[in-house]
Design goal:
Blueprint (H helix, E strand, L loop, with lengths): L4 E6 L5 E5 H28 L2 H11 L14 H9 L3 H7 L3 H36 L4 E2 L2 E2 L1
Antiparallel strand pairs: 1-2, 3-4
Helix pairs in contact: 1-5, 3-4
């Protein structure tokens, strides 16, 4: 079919469905940016709120008796509080995966910020290029 879309079989209504690859990429990028924003807020809240507040909020969110065996995220709140204090050993003791998760979330937040920054800069330069092609130098407060 090529790179412009994916063609499927007949839908119940009788028409063919088609997904434009650019639309799929844009949708995936948007979903990633929204999830990155949520993760960034969680990361910032865990690092900026007072330790007592973080522990109190985590206790409110915990479902008592929801699981009998330790889960993958057990001890993560205490690990994040330890990370915030710079206690890497304490964080690893509270949850061995906390260092990896923190590093991944931080790297993802930086990458998402980079994508937003790059696309904002590129959008501005595209706008200037279009203005100059039309013989203009400004639109509103935007100057080229």
């Amino acid at each position: 079919m090529g790179t412009d879309g994916i063609r499927g079989s007949d839908c119940p209504g009788g028409s063919l469905w088609r997904i434009d690859v650019r639309d799929a990429k844009a949708a995936a990028r948007l979903a990633w940016l929204v999830l990155s924003l949520a993760a960034g807020f969680a990361l910032a809240a865990g690092l900026l709120l007072p330790a007592k507040t973080v522990l109190r909020l985590a206790a409110l969110l915990a479902a008592p008796g929801a699981h009998s065996a330790p889960c993958l995220l057990c001890g993560m709140t205490h690990a994040w509080v330890a990370l915030r204090a710079g206690d890497l050993a304490g964080a690893a003791k509270a949850n061995a995966g906390s260092l990896v998760l923190f590093a991944l979330l931080a790297a993802n937040s930086v990458a998402a910020g980079g994508v937003v920054f790059y696309r904002t800069i590129r959008r501005g330069s595209d706008r200037c290029r279009r203005l100059k092609e039309n013989g203009k130098t400004a639109i509103g407060r935007h100057r080229c």
